[in-house]
Every structure is written in structure tokens, then in C-alpha cells.
Amino acid sequence: MFKGALREKTRILVTHAIDFVHLADKVVVMKEGEIKVQGTYEEVLDNPIVQEILEIHNKNRKEKEAAFKEDEKDESTGDTSDKSSDKKEPIDMILTRNSTLSNLTP
Predict the structure, then answer these.
(1) DSSP letters along 4-36, please?
(2) How far apart are the C-alpha atoms of 59 and 66, rounded to whole Å?
(3) What is the pLDDT of residues 35-89, one digit of tens each?
(4) Alpha carbons 95 and 26: distance in angstroms, whole number
(5) Torsion on CA atoms 89, 95, 100, 101, rounded to nearest 10
(6) 104 DSSP 8-state letter
(7) pLDDT of residue 15
(8) What is the pLDDT of residue 61?
(9) How far apart are CA 97 and CA 42, in angstroms?
(10) What is the pLDDT of residue 46?
(11) Within 13 A of 20's CA, how many CA atoms are on the CB side?
(12) Among 12-21, 41-50, 75-84, 95-104, which range has the highest average pLDDT?
């Protein structure tokens, strides 16, 4: 959809997921209601907050993969116990593509 029908339109995506961040023309990272970092994906990639987001994403992906493997194992043994884990405070990201928005400031 991003590269299809909406290709020439300005889109704003507000998400905790980062799977499409690299496709955005501009990334704005907010934490606790304040803009903490903004720029292109390449410009924000080395920022400590963005690195924290990427670490959380990678940890969650690995936990999800492990949970699927555990679920498959549990299905074969009949185990239905809860295996939830602690979660960190979310960090919001605003992604724009083909945007004519002026530079956002905190």
C-alpha cells in the first residue's frame, strides 16, 4: 500500500512497530509526549533512543519466536500455563512519507 495507491500522497503513521521505519522519508521519535529525535531513518539510526527501540524490537521478536516454539511444544504436551513477561514503557514513533510538513520542533 505504501508504494502503491498512496505512493504520491502524504501519509502519517503513528506506531510502536518499527518494521516499516526504513521506508519513511522522515522519522519523528516521541517519548513521554515530547519529540526526542527526528530526521531520515539513516540520520536517527545511531541515536540512543532509536537504538533502545531497535533493541526492544529485536528482543520482542526473539521472544515471540521462542514463544511460538514453546507453544508448539506445549500443544504436544497439553501445557497451558501463562508465560507473560515484563514490558518497558512504550516509545512513540511518527513516520511520514512524501511529506511537505515543515521541520517539527519539540
Answers:
(1) TTTTTS-EEEEES--TTGGG-SEEEEEETTEEE
(2) 10
(3) 999 999 999 999 999 999 889 888 988 888 888 887 777 676 666 555 555 556 6
(4) 6
(5) 0
(6) P
(7) 80
(8) 86
(9) 14
(10) 93
(11) 15
(12) 41-50
Instruction: Write out the three cell numbers for 44.
Output: 536517527
The C-alpha cell at 26 is 522522515
Contacts of 43 (CB under 8 A, 6+ apart): none
Amino acid code (one letter) for 33: G
- Residue type for 43, please? E
In this prediction, residue 19 carries a pLDDT of 83
Which three cell numbers mark 93? Answer: 514513533
Strand order in the sheet with 26-31: 11-15, 92-97, 26-31, 34-39
Distance CA(49)–CA(44), nearest Å, equals 9
Query: Considering the entire predicted model, what is its pTM?
Result: 0.56
